[in-house]
């Protein structure tokens, strides 16, 4: 421990006081309280890394066991057979279903969430903003299985009208045609996920918009900007990276959502051309519905699919980081 | 293009609190008028009533008249947004839009007015930056963020942004209080040049500054904590600093209080 702290010391400038006191003060951990707290916080950090590493090793090991015995191509096979030998399973359908339902959820939720956040911070009278924010917080507290039940019992029976309308007017696109099956499709999943991720995106965006410095808004106002122009010139650019982060939090939840998806979707192991036709599946839903009855080998295969979900989530987060960093010098942080 | 400001019987509130009471004055076009007075005397509040920025503060409201030439800024049916396009403002802390380049900062007001032609934008941005004595320092990095400039440069960028839309009046709320002496001098020189074209009103805590840059000086004071601020007197700057007609003004500028 002592040795490692010396590495973190900044290289002393040429004529830095090299007395023992100066050195100890720079390390900042001579008093008992400081030492204890340093130990605690460093220990927590290390513990986190150890847990992460342990999970990664376990998952990779079990996944490797399964993939090495996969008779099909793990990435492209449209099948999930782990019971009978030779085993044949692949994640193509799951990856498609997960990504598509999450994209639908984002496309629906982000604009609405940003709209709500702007309304709460810049339009709503204070008397109204409080209660609305509270209701949105409540929405975040509803357990996902409750969303699933609501989706299956209320949303699904009421979506036929919307589906018929989409089919009539946008059916020609191919991806929005409908053959008349129960609306337990990826689109329904996306709608449900959108409702579920709405609160987190709204709340984080609201916090970000609230932190827009007053002086930036006044700068726009003094130029003769209307309220919408103030939002466009000062609020949205400042909040941009925050909204992206908020969306990524929501996307993370949408990608990993299990119970609600499993309750609403009629899973099949193929890809439907149309978002409206029932079928498809997601990683989390597939794991949840198969894990209990799986053999040990079947569990390994499901773990392998979980690893892919993990990698997708990492990629998505990395992409978001890149978008945020690319315009860092323009961010509000150095205002 | 510079316009005269005629204020009569102006009172401004923050909610139930009366911040300034019954202020009347005339501000001549193409001149610099300085507002001085102790903290809390309402000089900034009064400045913000001149472009209807006071009312964007929650609870802010105004009674009385502000005539810009003959037009009452607080008349029925007057849109505060169009008032602010006529009366520009520079703030205490430099506030360029952090997400915009230098060019876009200066062009921001023009774009609000619907100017989209690239050549026109280029011309006005160059003219405004030259007008703000900033062109030579930034002409090679117009596409760099405005937030990367020094404090004094940022403040001149804000001035360029304000004058790009050719306002009739330019309000400055302690524009130098966050700047070092060299940058302050640059801004003061600039004010001297800008008064050829604009009506300038400047709030300052620095009495030497008021004496250096202004033609007319208004002294504000308040009777006590919680009392509304009032205009004590307004006169030629020379007279205010040599032979003011009110004792309180003399006490303030000679450092006996405030």
In short:
The complex is a heterodimer of chains A (335) and B (258). Chain A is mostly helical and 335 residues long.
Given the helix and strand composition of chain B, which structural class is it?
alpha/beta
Shape of chain B: globular
- Termini separation of chain A: 38 Å
Helix content of chain B: 25-40%
Tell me the β content of chain A: under 5%
Describe the structure.
The complex is a heterodimer of chains A (335) and B (258). Chain A has 335 residues and is mainly α. Chain A has a domain at 95-328: MetI-like fold (Orthogonal Bundle). Helices cover 70% and strands 1% of the residues of chain A. Chain A contains 13 helices and two strands, in the order αααββαααααααααα. In chain A, strands 1-2 form a two-stranded antiparallel sheet. In chain A, helix 8 crosses helix 10 and helix 9 (214-222) packs across helix 10 (227-256). Chain B has a domain at 5-98 and 169-253: P-loop containing nucleotide triphosphate hydrolases (Rossmann fold, 3-Layer(aba) Sandwich), CATH 3.40.50. Chain B is 35% helix and 26% strand. Chain B is built from ten helices and ten strands. In chain B, a hairpin with a 2-residue loop joins strand 4 and strand 5 (71-72). The chains are: A mainly alpha (335), B alpha/beta (258). Chain A binds chain B through residues 126, 213, 215-216, 218-226, 229, 233-234, 237-238, 240, 327, 329-332, 334-335, and chain B through 51, 53, 56, 58, 81-85, 88-89, 91, 93, 95-101, 108-109, 112-113, 145, 147-148, 158, 161-162, 165.
């Amino acid at each position: 421990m002592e040795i490692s702290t010396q590495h973190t010391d900044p290289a002393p400038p040429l004529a830095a006081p090299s007395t023992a006191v100066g050195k100890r003060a720079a390390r900042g951990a001579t008093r008992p309280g400081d030492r204890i707290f340093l130990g605690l916080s460093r220990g927590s950090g290390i513990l986190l890394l150890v847990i992460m590493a342990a999970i990664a090793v376990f998952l990779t090991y079990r996944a490797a066991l399964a993939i090495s015995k996969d008779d099909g191509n793990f990435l492209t096979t449209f099948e999930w057979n782990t019971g009978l030998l030779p085993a044949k399973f692949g994640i193509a359908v799951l990856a498609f279903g997960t990504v598509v339902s999450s994209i639908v959820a984002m496309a629906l939720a982000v604009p609405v969430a940003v709209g709500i956040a702007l309304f709460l911070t810049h339009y709503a009278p204070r008397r109204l903003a409080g209660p609305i924010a509270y209701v949105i917080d409540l929405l975040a507290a509803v357990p996902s299985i409750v969303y699933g039940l609501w989706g299956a019992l209320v949303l699904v029976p009421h979506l036929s009208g919307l589906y018929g309308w989409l089919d009539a007017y946008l059916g020609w696109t191919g991806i929005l045609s409908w053959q008349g099956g129960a609306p337990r499709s990826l689109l329904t999943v996306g709608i449900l996920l959108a409702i579920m991720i709405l609160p987190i995106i709204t709340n984080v965006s609201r916090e970000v918009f609230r932190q827009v410095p007053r002086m930036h808004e006044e700068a726009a106002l003094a130029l003769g900007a209307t309220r919408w122009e103030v939002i466009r010139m000062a609020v949205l650019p400042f909040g941009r990276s925050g909204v992206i982060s908020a969306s990524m939090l929501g996307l993370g939840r949408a990608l990993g959502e299990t119970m609600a998806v499993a309750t609403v979707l009629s899973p099949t192991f193929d890809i439907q051309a149309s978002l409206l036709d029932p079928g498809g599946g997601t990683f989390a839903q597939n794991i949840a519905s198969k894990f209990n009855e799986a053999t040990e080998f079947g569990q390994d295969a499901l773990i392998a699919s979980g690893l892919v979900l993990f990698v997708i989530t990492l990629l998505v987060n990395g992409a978001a980081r890149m978008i945020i960093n690319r315009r860092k010098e323009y961010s509000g942080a150095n205002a | 293009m510079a316009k005269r400001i005629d204020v009569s019987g102006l009172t401004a509130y923050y909610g139930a609190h009366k911040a300034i009471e019954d202020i009347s004055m005339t501000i001549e076009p193409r001149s610099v008028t300085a507002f001085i007075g102790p903290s809390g005397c309402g000089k900034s509040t009064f400045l913000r009533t001149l472009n209807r920025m006071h009312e964007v503060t929650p609870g802010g409201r105004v009674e009385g008249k502000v005539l810009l030439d003959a037009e009452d800024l607080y008349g029925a049916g007057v849109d505060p947004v169009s008032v602010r396009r006529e009366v520009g403002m520079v703030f205490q802390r430099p506030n360029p839009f952090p997400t915009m380049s230098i060019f876009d900062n200066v062009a921001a007001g023009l774009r609000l007015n619907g100017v989209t032609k690239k050549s026109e934008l280029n011309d006005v941005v160059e003219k405004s930056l030259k007008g703000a004595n900033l062109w030579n320092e930034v002409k090679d990095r117009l596409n760099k963020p405005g937030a990367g400039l020094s404090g004094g440069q940022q403040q001149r960028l804000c001035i360029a942004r304000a004058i790009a839309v050719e306002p009739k009046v330019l309000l400055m709320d302690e524009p130098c209080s966050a700047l070092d002496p060299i940058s302050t001098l640059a801004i003061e020189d600039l004010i001297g040049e800008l008064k050829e074209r604009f009506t300038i009103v400047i709030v300052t805590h620095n009495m030497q500054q008021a004496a250096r840059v202004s033609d007319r000086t208004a002294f504000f004071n308040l009777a006590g904590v919680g009392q509304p601020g009032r205009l004590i007197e307004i006169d030629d700057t020379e007279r205010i600093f040599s032979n003011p007609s009110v004792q309180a003004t003399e006490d303030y500028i000679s450092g006996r209080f405030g």
